[in-house]
Specification:
The protein is mostly helical. It has one domain: Orthogonal Bundle (Farnesyl Diphosphate Synthase), CATH 1.10.600. The protein contains 17 helices and two strands. The chain has a two-stranded antiparallel sheet. The longest helix is centred in the middle third of the chain and has 28 residues.
């Protein structure tokens, strides 16, 4: 049975509205991920790019450009740029995390090797800069190059902070702003910039992307403890097993008594985990309301994203962006 427009998920409605542009983005991605001399590049890239991802970040760029009345063609270049940056970071992340599954499929580093994943990721970063330059906008280049640096900075900060019980919620948010929200906010901001939108509108798009990205990552971290493995494309408890101090764990550690803190010290800081530890961790998360309070924080960031849209012009896309913020946190209800 066909879904009505109102019953479709927000990103599906947006994809339908932007279908022609998304096809152009996909065509450009396939063209630019080709390599005459290194066939492994398109093999590795296609494995991830064509794995059924929602294309959320490039859609945000297209949506922002449409919302601001852009009638040119460079929003296609920028959307492809955003997707290349995202794909490159995923390839690198899976190597760093030693992941074996992404979007429900074996990771590239598992199917090929770490060297291929890192080098193909580097190639995609290079391709993304070529696409940026073709727009002829120094402001666009500034935004996306800064985002690329911020993403790398966030990932490095996570390396040092994720297994340190002294990590605070403020440090966690700094990591999230780097590794996730930076690309969301850049994706929306450049859509406004390429459309030569007023400064207030560009700022509103940036604020929306920033808040949406933070909400998105908090929900992702929450689903690691209470999601469905088939739906989220990875195993429940992976963050615990990989000793990542995400928001739920940070809250539980902050509220721990002496015995509980010793448990976190053993399993997270020292990495000595044994059978049954994940169940104990989940019990402590529930005991201290860490999952409940993390969900409330995610909803607060989603509300901020919706509020940020207020100065922007009335447009069908604006309603879709607002619904998208709601949908991000609906995944945890």
């Amino acid at each position: 049975m066909l879904k009505t427009e109102n019953s479709q998920k927000p990103h599906d409605r947006m994809a339908a509205y932007l279908a022609e542009d998304l096809q152009a983005v996909n065509d450009l991605i396939r063209t630019r991920m080709a390599s005459e001399h290194a066939p492994r590049i398109p093999e590795v890239t296609a494995h991830l790019v064509e794995a059924g991802g929602k294309r959320l970040r490039p859609m945000l760029t297209l949506a922002a450009a449409h919302l601001c009345g852009y009638e040119g063609g460079y929003h296609i270049h920028l959307a492809a740029t955003v997707e290349f940056i995202h794909t490159a970071t995923l390839l690198h992340d899976d190597v760093v995390d030693e992941s074996g599954q992404r979007r429900g499929r074996p990771t590239a580093n598992l199917l090929w090797d770490n060297k291929s994943s890192v080098l193909v990721g580097d190639y995609l970063f290079s391709r993304s800069f070529q696409l940026m330059v073709e727009t002829g906008s120094l402001r666009v280049l500034d935004i996306l190059s800064n985002a690329s640096a911020t993403i790398a900075e966030g990932e490095v900060l996570q390396l040092t902070a994720s297994q340190d019980l002294a990590t605070t919620e403020a440090i966690y948010l700094q990591v999230v702003r780097g590794k996730t929200a930076a690309l969301f906010s850049a994706a929306t901001e450049v859509g406004g910039v390429i459309a030569e939108a007023p400064v207030a509108h560009v700022q509103a798009l940036y604020d929306y992307g920033d808040a949406l990205g933070i909400a998105f990552q908090i929900v992702d971290d929450l689903l690691d403890f209470q999601g469905d493995a088939g739906a989220i494309g990875k195993n429940i408890g992976d963050d615990f097993r990989e000793r990542k101090l995400t928001m739920p764990l940070i809250k539980a550690v902050a509220r721990a008594d002496t015995e509980e803190r010793a448990f976190w010290m053993r399993t997270i800081e020292k990495g000595r985990q044994s059978e049954g530890d994940l169940d104990t961790a989940l019990d402590l998360l529930h005991k201290h309301g860490a999952l409940r309070d993390t969900a409330a924080q995610a909803r607060d960031w989603a509300a901020r994203a919706k509020s940020a849209l207020a100065p922007l012009p009335d447009h069908k896309i604006k309603g879709m962006l607002s619904d998208l913020a709601d949908y991000v946190v609906e995944r945890i209800t």
